[in-house]
Design goal:
Layout (H helix, E strand, L loop, with lengths): L5 E6 L5 H14 L4 E5 L5 H11 L8 H25 L3 E5 L2 H11 L4 H12 L6 E6 L2 H10 L13 H17 L4 E5 L4 H10 L7
Parallel strand pairs: 1-3, 1-4, 2-3, 4-5
Helix pairs in contact: 1-8, 2-3, 3-4, 3-5, 4-5, 4-7
Bound molecules: adenosine-5'-diphosphate and thymidine-5'-diphosphate.
């Protein structure tokens, strides 16, 4: 049986990622694909336990290096226990965030540098990468409107960091897409949800059976 494909969906806060995750999953399943939908931090029992450590408590609970290591540890467990077994079974996997969130948040915005975070991924997960990473991008003003419209979630340790942090996250995602244009595609998240979903599917066109 052919190995499945691994797709990650990324973006800053409030770009409409949850909305698109659901719509993209339905569209892929509608094409007859067996799809496992998962998320980070989390996606396996061990990684879900680490998720609570990462998202709850004071912003100062972890220093930047400890925070990056926890994300990398959660990801190592998620890859081994959930993602690789599904791909081996021939399923497709769609993950709500993956490595590129660590590169943008901890590496770029957190000041560790993208290369340092990539080194943790080489150690933790043998540098296992998605077949395609779709990054939703929105201009800042529209992103702020959507973030305000959304219930909850901005209160977590990372979501509640200042606008300058989130602007650096956005710059990080754009830099990654420039550096890895074949794997990482920037997707315009403006306009009606169905239009954004169509852009996502178009960016997967060469992978779809
Ligand atoms: N394409 C869109 N156009 C306008 N509003 C949107 C769009 N997609 C999502 N929203 C709204 O923006 C807010 C954030 O969307 P959500 O999918 O929860 O984003 P995220 O998961 O990125 O935080 C929600 O109120 C949602 O209804
Ligand atoms: C996977 C990952 C997430 N994060 C952050 C992004 C989010 O602020 C938070 C995950 O929270 P979550 O509640 O899943 O929110 P979202 O809807 O924004 O995906 O953790 C990192 O900083 N590094 C990472 O590697």
């Amino acid at each position: 049986m052919a190995r499945g494909r691994f797709i990650s969906l990324e973006g800053g806060e409030g770009v409409g990622k949850s909305t698109q995750l659901t719509a993209l999953a339905e569209a892929l399943q509608g094409r007859g694909l067996q799809l496992l939908v998962t998320r980070e931090p989390g996606g396996s029992p061990g990684a879900e336990a680490i998720r609570k450590l990462l998202l709850e408590g004071e912003d100062t609970r972890w220093n930047p290096r400890a925070e990056a290591l926890l994300f990398a540890a959660a990801r190592a467990d998620h890859v081994e226990k959930t993602i690789l077994p599904a791909l081996e079974r021939g399923e497709w996997v769609l993950s709500d965030r993956f490595l590129d969130s660590s590169l943008a948040y901890q590496g770029e915005a957190g000041g560790l540098g993208i290369e340092a975070v990539r080194a943790l991924h080489r150690f933790g997960s043998s540098d296992f990468l998605p077949d395609r990473t779709l990054v939703l991008v929105l201009d800042e003003a529209e992103g702020a409107v959507r973030a305000r419209a959304r219930d909850g979630n901005l209160g977590d340790r990372i979501g509640s960091r200042p606008p300058s942090y989130h602007a650096a996250v956005d710059a990080g995602f754009r830099a990654i897409a420039t550096n890895e244009p074949d794997r990482v595609k920037l997707i315009d998240a403006s306009g009606p949800p169905a239009t954004v979903t169509a852009r996502l599917l178009y960016a997967l066109g060469d992978l779809l059976p």
